[in-house]
Amino acid sequence: MTGGISRRTFLQLSVAATAALGAAGAVAAGDGRSYVSGGFAPGHVEPDTWTYSTCGFCGTGCGIEIGTKDGVPVAIRGTKGYPVNDGLLCAKGIYQWKIITAPDRGKRPLIRKDGKMVPATWDEALTAMTDKLKQLLADYGPESIACYNTGQLCMEEFYTLGKLMRAGFRTPNLDGNTRTCMASAVMGHIRSFGTDGPVGAYADIEAAEVILIAGSNMAECHPILFGRVVKAVEKGARLICVDPRLTQVSRIATINLPIRPGTDVVLLNAMAHVIIREGLIDRAYIDAHTTGYPELEQHLRKYTPQYAAGICGVPAEDIEAAALLYGRAERSLSMWVMGINQSVNGTIANNCFHNLNLIQGKIGKPGCASFSITGQPAAMASREVGGSSSYPGYRAIGNAQHRAEIAALWGVDPATLPDKSPSITEIIDAILEGRIKALWVICTNPLMSLPDQNRVRQALEKLELLVVQDAFETVDTAQYAHIFLPAALWAEKSGIMVNSERRLNLLKPAVKPPGEARTDFEIFLDVADRMGFGHLFPYRTTEECFEEIKRVTRGRPNDYSGATYARIEASKGLQWPIPDERSPGTPRLYADGRFNTPDGRAVLWAVDPIELPEVPDGEYPFNLNSGRVQEHYHTGTKTRKVPELNALVPTAYVELNPRDAEALGVQYGDRVCIESRRGQIEAKVVVTSQVAPGSCFVPMHFGEGPVNRLTVWAVDPFSKEPNYKQQAVRLRRV
C-alpha cells in the first residue's frame, strides 16, 4: 500500500472514473491489468483540439491523440481503430500529457561557469560546444569525441545524428542506450537471418495456438500487448511462461517454468531436443531453407529434459510438456524481452529461440514467429537508419561494400567512414583511459542506466566536455555537464517512430516546445552548420529528410520507398518493407523462406551457455534481478513527474521471498541495505512469493536507490549488451 491506496485499486478507480466521464469504454481485469479505451485521465479538461500522434513510451507503438486546450496539453486518448491498440492505453500512456508541462523542463541552454550551471543563449552554448569539439579534433583526432543517444528520438533525428557523427565528425564512437536493451536481439537476428529486423506481427498473437513468453513481465512492461495475449488465452490459446519471477503472465499460463536465473539457453536447447526426438520438425523446410541442422541435432543430444532440469531447477516433465505443447501446435509463437537480452547469454539465447522455430518451419506464417519485443518507441528506427551500431539500411559497419554504398549515397570518400562501432561500455572504458575527451549525451541518462554506477560517475567526471541534451534539466547525468541543451519532447515535434512489428507511424506536433527549447533535429543541423558540415545536409525539415532516407534504404531489407507522411497517417501505420506506393506493407518477414544471408538460408546455431560473470556465494548469497514496473519507465526521468503514477511507486523497494525475509528478520516496510562488490543502496522490503528463495528484485527507476550501483560490468561477447539480470548481493537490515 502507498498513501492508503494500492496500485491495483488506483488503476481500477482511474478506469472507473474515466468511464463515468463518458469515455468510449474501459477494461479493468481482476489480475491488475488496466487499460482505458478512448478516454483520458480523471479530472481532465475538455480539449478543443486533438492531434494524431504515437505514444512516447515503450516499443508497442500505440496510436494516440493528444488533446490540447488553448494550445496547452490537457489529455491523451488512444486512437480508436489503430491496429496496435484500438484505443486502449496503459497507465503511463494515458497520463503522459502531464510530462509535457513538468516544471523542470529545460527551457534555455545552460553553461557551467565557476562550478555552477548558468543560463546562456543558444549561440553562446553552441559556440562553446563546437569550439571545444574543433579543438579536440585538431589535437586528438575524431576518436577523441563520442556520442551516446537513445531509442526515443524520431527516425529523421537518428538518421541526421548518425550522418553528422560518422560523415561529419568521422568518429566511430556513436552508440545508443538501445545497446543496453536490444543489442542481443539485433545480433540474434543477424546471426540467424542475415540482418536485423523482427520477423513477426502483433496479429500473430491472435492467430497462435500456443504462445511462449520468456524473460518478459509483459503485463507491466508491455501491457497493451499483454491484453492481446489475455484475449488469445480466453479464446483457447495455450500459454507457456518462462521467468524466474512469478508475474501476472505466469498466473494465466498453462505451463509455468520458473527457471533459475541465466539458464534460458539450457531450457531452449532441451525443448528443441524433445521436438527433434519426437519428430515434430519440418524436414523439408530445414533442408530447403536452413544450414547447420546436422551439427545442431548432434549437439542437442545431451540436452535431455532430465539434464536440463538439474540446471534449470524445474521438473523434467514440465520441460517435456512445454516442448510437446509448443511442437505439436500448428501455430506457435515465442516472444521475449529484457530477461533474455540483458545477459552474457543474450545473443545465443535469441539464436535458440530462432532455432526452435526454424526447425519447425514456423517463420513467416500467421501465428508463427520468434518475436523479439522492443523496449523503446523508436529503438527500431535507430537500428534501421544508422543511429547507433550500423549504417542506414541495415548496412554493417565492418562491411567495406556497405560503406562504399553509403559513401556514394552521401557523397563522401568511403575511406573517411568509420569501420568499427565501439559499444557504450567500451566508450566508458576509453574515457577512463583518457582516449575519449568529449561525450555528447542525448535523451538518455547513463549515470542511472548503465551498470556499475560508480565506474560511470568516474568517467563523467574525467571528461573535458560533457554535453547533455535533454527535455529535463534535472536529469541525473546533467549534474556533471559542462553544457546543457534543452530539447523538445515527442509531442512537440514531427517525424516517424517504428515499433516492434516494424510499423512506421507518425509524430505530429501538438504543442510548441517550452521556452527556448528546440527539437533534436534542429539542434543537430545547427551543430553541423557550425562545424562546417552543413553541405552534408541538403534538407531542412524532417519530411525532406525522410525523402533522403527513402533513397538510402531503397532495395534494402527495410525499404521505405512506398511510404510518405500522408500515407502513413492515412493507413494508421505501415509495416516495412514498403517497396512502392502500391505496397500495403509487409506483416511478416521471410514468408518465402529466403533469408538475408549470402546463400539465402537461415543459420541454425549449436550453442552452450556462457558462464555467468557472477553467481551467489557464501559472501553474497542472493541473485539480484532488476527491471520495470508498469507505472514507471527507465530511470523515471519522465514518469516520476506524474503525481498519480509516482504516488503508487514513489521509491525503491526490494522484493524478498518470505523464507528469506524471515531469515533476515525483516518484515514488509522495513529497510534493508543491499550490497554488491561494486556498491550499496537502501530500499524498502516487500515480502512476496513472486521471487524465489535466494533471489531478489529491485526496480530500476529510482535515483535515491539506484540499482545500477550494484550491477556488474560484464557484457554479452557478441552484442556487448550489459548483463543486468544476474549479479550477487547480500542484504542486511538497516
Protein architecture, described:
- Helix content is about 35%, strand content about 20%.
- Helix 4 crosses helix 23 and helix 20 crosses helix 22.
- The N terminus is likely disordered.
- The protein folds into 4 domains: about 90 residues, N-terminal domain of TfIIb, CATH 2.20.25; about 200 residues, Rossmann fold (3-Layer(aba) Sandwich); about 170 residues, Dimethylsulfoxide Reductase, domain 2 (3-Layer(aba) Sandwich), CATH 3.40.228.10; about 110 residues, Barwin-like endoglucanases (Beta Barrel), CATH 2.40.40.20.
- It has 27 helices and 31 strands.
- The longest helix has 19 residues.
- It is of the alpha/beta class and about 725 residues long.
- Its cofactor is [4Fe-4S] cluster; Mo-bis(molybdopterin guanine dinucleotide).
- This is Nitrate reductase.
- One of its GO terms (biological process) is nitrate assimilation.
- Keywords: 4Fe-4S, Iron, Iron-sulfur, Metal-binding, Molybdenum, Nitrate assimilation, Oxidoreductase, Signal.
Could you give a quick summary of the protein structure above?
The chain has 734 residues and is an alpha/beta fold. It folds into four domains: 7-100, N-terminal domain of TfIIb, CATH 2.20.25; 110-178 and 398-493 and 517-556, 3-Layer(aba) Sandwich (Rossmann fold); 199-372, Dimethylsulfoxide Reductase, domain 2, CATH 3.40.228; 622-733, Barwin-like endoglucanases (Beta Barrel). The radius of gyration is 24 Å and the shape is globular.
